[in-house]
């Protein structure tokens, strides 16, 4: 069971988490017509008493875009204001995760996005490591990532997570920790809830947006940081066999941070991971507010 933060935002106001309840007839529950965000917060390790949120603006923008894809006009500024209040009201003292969610809240029957009520809630939970920081084993999924022509992949649409769920369970039930999905062209797309990077001959390589990936905010941050460190970065299609022979493979996401991959299918990967280690160390320093070059990526909330 998770440790949920005590206060939630629900139906336009703040309330106890346990009072934020939806009806069994809720439209989004039946049709997957929701979209969510996910961001981490930490109490400032420097002891300022403030809460640090990583790339708050980007997360709010992505959720607003997801909402727009669901025919719901919810400005990023509104999401941001609610999240700031949400953090102040909860005053978390441990590392936590915020889950804002937009959805069709109507009680009507019939899948559609027009003429249906929408709503927005936010809740949070304490969250430590989502995947083992020591590294994970990955199976190549027998399920394929969806295509943008059947589902808007630029949004973090809740209904799309059926594929992630199938892939994750298939991997775990066959003895692996995680799943890597190919796209319909047979190229590497992403993991169940993370983007994928490989390192070959010192170059950092990751599938581009045309490979049906989610526009990961951690992915974007890693690309910027790597370029600034002078690491050669290439966004291009990645073949399955490249995963098996890569010098390093890692997964990136808000929950997973940078998680090394130890093994793909039956192929063990090298245990020395200089590029992964370097990027991980840098990203940790940035998210903890210890890197002045990236101060504008870290939003500090005074609990006052
Ligand atoms: N892909 C999927 C399917 C995800 O759910 C996530 C987690 N949000 C990611 C990639 C990584 O995105 P981010 O770095 O923005 O958390």
Describe this structure in words.
The protein has 304 residues and is of the alpha+beta class. It has two domains: 7-126, Aminotransferase class 4, branched-chain amino acid transferase, N-terminal domain (D-amino Acid Aminotransferase, Chain A, domain 1), CATH 3.30.470; 136-288, D-amino Acid Aminotransferase, Chain A, domain 2 (Alpha-Beta Barrel), CATH 3.20.10.10. Helix content is 26%, strand content 28%. It has seven helices and 17 strands. The strands form three sheets. Strands 8, 9, 10, 11, 12, 13, 14, 15 and 16 form a nine-stranded mixed sheet that branches. Strands 3, 4, 5, 6, 7 and 17 form a six-stranded antiparallel sheet that branches. A hairpin with a 2-residue loop joins strand 15 (257-264) and strand 16 (267-268). Helix 2 packs across helix 3 (76-90). The longest helix has 15 residues, at 76-90. The radius of gyration is 19 Å and the shape is globular. The structure holds 4'-deoxy-4'-aminopyridoxal-5'-phosphate. 4'-deoxy-4'-aminopyridoxal-5'-phosphate binds next to helix 5 and strand 14.
